[in-house]
Design goal:
This protein is α/β, with parallel strands linked by helices. The chain has 16 helices and 8 strands. The chain has a 5-stranded parallel beta sheet, with helices on both faces. It is globular and about 75 Å long.
Length: 363
């Protein structure tokens, strides 16, 4: 009986369930941001005693820390990882310890949230501090795997969202909104996969080559990241038919990546026909996905964890320097692709539009 471990969210749990049904799970970690995973500073939060049991249980589990030590002791033959939760869950700091913001806390009553956030400092998902902590933790995580788990086979799950829902429990508009949100997060997950692949030599990437869909048999309910039970069975069967770990590619598969991005078409066509308010999500997807995809194709060796321009930088720069927002998605993307904030600023300052306004400002 082989020993398996998984770290991540429902994709890892589902893949292990169907691909390794007879294996012994020696370690699993569900829903913990990698920045907290790599932070070994234990903490006791006494102020949560009156909070709901679901929140207390999650925070107590995470605050005990020691994840790396337990994973090293487990010494699994195979470690399955996905980054679905990393690209969704915010961080929070209690004293000097990093923790993951529990979903249950986000859904709690306003009084409890005010109480919680008076003692916990939230580091919102997506801002610079968040990604600085995550990327630093990713580097440490890769070093840990290389040094302490040299014989472990690491499977990195490339699990894109699916726009194909074949159930009856939720309406199509609700499902499509959720799909749009996850499609915006997908490039981030891809970057973290690529980051690990470049560093952990004994790693492979599993990108499903079959058609993905969700239905009402999906674990935890239908959702773009919750594939149908039959889909996971097919993925597991294909994995073994291709030779298991040794049959997985060592590098990213551009065809699979491009195929996964094709879900953008569903976001535009389906959402535009069913609900015009969803068209904004489609534009946001373009802003988040296409610059990364273009960069990966045009210069795959470039380190995209440098000092990138984010979407807020582009809009803010246009407002402050030109007094308006970008006039089109193309203009936005052209400026979003600039190497850093300084170049963005200087590009706008050199623009004919700004230069023609300078004499007016001098009067």
């Amino acid at each position: 009986m082989s020993e398996i471990a998984y770290y991540g969210s429902c994709p890892s749990e589902e893949f292990v369930k169907y691909a390794f049904p007879d294996s012994k799970i020696t370690f699993f970690c569900y829903g913990i941001n990698v920045a907290s995973f790599m932070d070994d500073r234990k903490v006791t939060i006494k102020a949560i005693e009156a909070w709901p049991e679901s929140i207390k249980k999650r925070l107590r589990f995470e605050s005990r820390k020691g994840f790396c030590g337990r994973l090293k002791k487990a010494a699994p033959k195979t470690l399955v990882i996905d980054f679905s939760r990393v690209t969704r869950a915010s961080l929070m700091r209690y004293k000097n310890t990093l923790l993951t913001v529990p979903y249950e806390l986000l859904e709690a009553a306003p009084d409890l949230q005010r109480d919680a956030f008076s003692i916990l400092t939230v580091i919102p998902f997506g801002n610079r501090e968040f990604w600085t902590l995550v990327v630093d933790a990713m580097r440490k995580f890769c070093d840990f795997v290389i040094q302490d788990l040299p014989e472990t086979e690491v499977i990195l799950l490339d699990a894109p969202p699916t726009a194909d829902y074949r159930g009856a429990l939720i309406d199509s508009n609700t499902y499509m909104v959720d799909f749009c949100r996850w499609q915006m997060r997908y490039p981030m997950s891809r970057m973290l996969i690529d980051y690990c692949l470049e560093r952990i030599k004994n790693s492979r990437v599993l990108a499903p080559s079959l058609h993905l869909y969700s239905d009402d048999t999906a674990l935890y309910g239908p959702a773009p990241m919750h594939y149908s039970e039959n889909v996971w069975k097919e993925i597991a069967a294909q994995f073994h038919a291709d030779g298991g770990f040794e049959g997985l590619p060592r590098s990213s598969d551009l065809v699979s990546t491009l195929t996964n991005y094709s879900g953008l078409m569903d976001a535009f066509t389906t959402s535009a026909l069913s609900n015009q308010n969803l068209q904004r999500f489609s534009l946001d997807i373009l802003h988040g996905a296409l610059p990364y995809l273009f960069a990966r194709i045009s210069n795959p060796a470039e380190n995209h964890f440098g000092d990138p321009v984010d979407s807020h930088d582009v809009v803010a720069a246009f407002r402050w320097i030109l007094g308006r927002e970008p006039e089109s998605a193309l203009t936005f993307l052209n400026h979003y692709a600039l190497p850093n904030r300084r170049e963005l600023r200087e590009t706008l300052l050199r623009s004919f539009e700004f230069q023609s306004q300078v004499p007016l400002y001098a009067r």
